[in-house]
Amino acid sequence: MLYINSYCAYTAGGHIAPGTPLRCLEQAAAGAAYAREPDYKDLIPPMQLRRMPRPIRLSIAAVKNILAGAAGQEVSAINVGTAYGLLSDTEQFLSQIVRQEEQLLTPTAFIQSTQNTIGGHIALLLRSHAHNMTFVQRGHSFEHALLDIELLEPSVPDQYIVGGVDELTPSSYTITNTLLRQHKGLDSDANLSEGAAFFRLSHQPQADSIAAIAGYHIFRANSSHAVADNIHRFLAGIPATEDRDWILGDIGTATFSKFYKPLLNDHDVRNITHYKPYTSDYPTVAAAGLAFATGYLTEQRQEQVILVQNYYDHWSVFVLNSMDML
Questions:
Q1: What's the pTM value of the predicted model, to 2 decimals?
Q2: CATH topology assigned to domain 2-202
Q3: How far is the C-alpha of 48 from the C-alpha of 60, rounded, in Å?
Q4: Does 254 score more than 60 pLDDT?
Q5: Do residues 66 and 199 touch, judged by C-beta distance below 8 A?
Q6: Burial grade of 143 (CB within 10 A; 0-12, 13-18, 19 or more)
Q7: At the fourth CATH level, which superfamily is domain 212-325?
């Protein structure tokens, strides 16, 4: 079991963090929706800020937020999940190759285009030599980053940083939207976005622990019955409470809403909240969904929240328990 001691997410709908009510979130824009950036004045020095790509800025801001309440900033691990890394720098480097005919290329864009750049920047910020891993598993990148933290031997300090980050660019939106309409049967433009969400976790409950991750399950499925069967078998092994709500990552289109119907019917689900109207959709959106679910759990004073979400055929389900249940 892992314990969430702090969380922070920057999404297309706004900021998700302790002390910021979820009602402050706004609907994400249709089509391409970009993350709403914070005021960096008190977070990142201006000279550093101007050289940072947007995902790095968002990640550093989120990490500084989650460490603000920590007794010390030393951590035992830094794990980042990202499907695409820094897309804008990748595009810039590839454009330079073509434009300059592979001559006199500047290395900055190439260095910053690699996925592990995000974790590297966080480590430099914290002056950390701890375990530092980046996971690139498409729609399950964040979940694998979380799994690695769970598999680590408990250590001192019992403090781990894990997050999910992805960037959207005009080019990536055009390409992804075209592929989705051709191969996934979408009859309108896709709602796609970006974001950064980070958590400060521990293996043992701390004085500032907010919630406990009682369990989670990841799988791939292309039918509604496979989805329902996977989740049903997973939840059978998790102690249930009478007072629990469901948070769904349904993007609201008929193409994908049908995957949730048998699941909701099987479990007689009544109290449902949707989080993707505020975050829209991107490969590591599960991290933002988990931040949303943590905020919902504490705001609504629920005993248990079940988060079910998908990025197309990549599915994950999380069970969050309040600290009062322990």
A1: 0.94
A2: Peroxisomal Thiolase; Chain A, domain 1 (3.40.47)
A3: 11
A4: no
A5: yes
A6: buried
A7: Thiolase/Chalcone synthase (3.40.47.10)
